[in-house]
């Protein structure tokens, strides 16, 4: 699997962290970042959240009929 992570905050918080105080094996991995962006694009472009809502409603209605 390819892991991606994000850490963010305002300048006051982020500027208090010095090099070596925070890190991970995945931080800054360009492939993981590209995969994460592509995954988010698919979720939005294919309207997967909306589709899952519709399919869930259909599934529940079909269960009631059984």
Question: How are the SSEs ordered, and which strands pair?
Answer:
Blueprint: H1 11-14, H2 30-45, H3 48-65
List the main descriptive attributes of the protein structure presented here.
66 residues; mainly alpha; 58% helix; elongated
Can you offer a commentary on this structure?
With 66 residues, this protein is mainly α. Helix content is 58%, strand content 0%. The chain has helices spanning 11-14, 30-45, 48-65.
Q: What is shown here, in short?
A:
It contains 3 helices and no strands. By secondary structure, the protein is mostly helical. The mean pLDDT is 82.
What characterizes the major β-sheet?
A: none
Helix fraction bin: 55-70%
The low-pLDDT segments are: none
User: Beta-sheet strand percentage?
Assistant: under 5%
Quaternary form: single chain
Question: How many angstroms does the end-to-end distance come to?
Answer: 39 Å
Mean pLDDT: 82
Q: Name the helix and strand elements from N-terminus to C-terminus, one letter apiece.
A: HHH
Q: What structural class should be given to the helix and strand makeup?
A: mainly alpha
Number of strands: 0
Q: Could you say which overall geometry the principal axes of the C-alpha atoms support? A: elongated
Please report the number of helical segments: 3
What gyration radius follows from the Cα positions, in whole Å? 19 Å
């Amino acid at each position: 699997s390819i892991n991606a992570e994000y850490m963010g905050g305002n300048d006051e918080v982020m500027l208090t962290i010095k090099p070596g105080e925070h890190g991970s094996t995945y931080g800054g991995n360009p492939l993981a970042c590209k995969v994460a962006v592509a995954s988010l694009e698919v979720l939005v472009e294919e309207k997967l959240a909306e589709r899952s809502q519709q399919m869930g409603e259909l599934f529940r209605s079909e269960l009631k009929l059984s």
